[in-house]
Amino acid sequence: MVFVINKLMWLACLFISVSFVALTYVVVGRHDWWLAWCTMAIGASIMLTAIGSMCFCIVAQRIEQKNARNIRRASGSGSRSWSMSVPSDSELLNNEHKRMYAL
After folding, report:
1. In angstroms, rounded to a whole number, what is the distance separating the alpha carbons of residues 70 and 89?
2. How far is it, in rounded angstroms, from Cα 23 to Cα 15?
3. How high is the mean pLDDT in each 10-residue block of the chain (103 residues)?
């Protein structure tokens, strides 16, 4: 449910940006069309920068998780002991407070 709400929030932000650009064109009018285009360029660059940086953070986090998973698989496949390993305090803290990016 959080996933769906997150996507709807990003869609709402996109629609607000588009409506802002449209409203700017209506307020400025036809005789100052260059001002509307400049405003649209500034707004589009800000929105694309925000979305691009969030996408970069998501991709970097997923690559990091995949590498950690591969390391765990490689280290766990070599020994098949029945003893249970106890994680250290630092491992618990690192696993407990994972970074989460909303996109």
Report:
1. 22
2. 12
3. 80 82 80 83 84 84 87 69 54 55 55
What is the widest separation between alpha-carbon atoms in the chain? 79
CA distances from 10 to 38, 71, 92 (A): 24, 34, 33
What residue ranges do the domains of the chain occupy? 1-64
Q: 15: which 2 tokens?
A: 């629609």
Q: How far is CA 22 from CA 42, 46, 50, 65, in A?
A: 14, 16, 20, 41
Q: Which residue has the tokens 């970069």?
A: 56
Cα distances (Å, whole numbers) of residue 19 to 3, 40, 69, 103: 25, 11, 43, 21
First to last CA, the chain: 14
Q: Which of 99, 93, 91, 97 is nearest to 60 (CA)?
A: 99
